[in-house]
User: What shape does this take?
Amino acid sequence: MKLDVINLDGGKAGDIELDADLFGLEPRADILHRVVRWQRNNAQQGTHKVKTRSETSYSTKKIYRQKGTGGARHGDRNAPIFRKGGIYKGPVPRSHGHELTKKFRKLGLRHALSAKAKAGELVVIEAAEAGGKTSALAKQVAKLGWKRALIIDGATVNEGFLKAARNIAGLDVLPSMGANVYDILKRDTLVLTKAGVEALEARLK
Assistant: This one.
């Protein structure tokens, strides 16, 4: 499939032939869902923790005698039944991550790229270069109509462009190795540089 290539000024800079195996698939929601779920679960810290009855701060002395009180028998005040006692079977630090094969993760990325291409939310630019001025880049982005956009460059990102884009709300910039399903689907517009297209094709073939 062919797509027009533009400059940051909005002018046409030719066209590019996109690989149908990456950008021409019929997007499948189940594949995208599984990959996004894998990403978000791996990102979850899992540091939630409660105190058990052995960790709460209270005396371990028997609170009253065993017999003759007319009440239930209790050992110490740290039991879960009491206020400020230990929590029974509460959360403990653990990993929420699970395995997903490399083959399936690559497939998910192909479907995410295809979903953006099919929705008409894919833009290819000649290069992501700027002189480091946020105001100038912000004007160009506004003119192009990018409100929530992800820009994916080649192996490295131009430092001047990165510096200029850093303070623009709704604009994210990643190198090709940082491209992932969650970030692609989260933004309204996916912007690839020509170098980014080549790098993604090399990575996903």
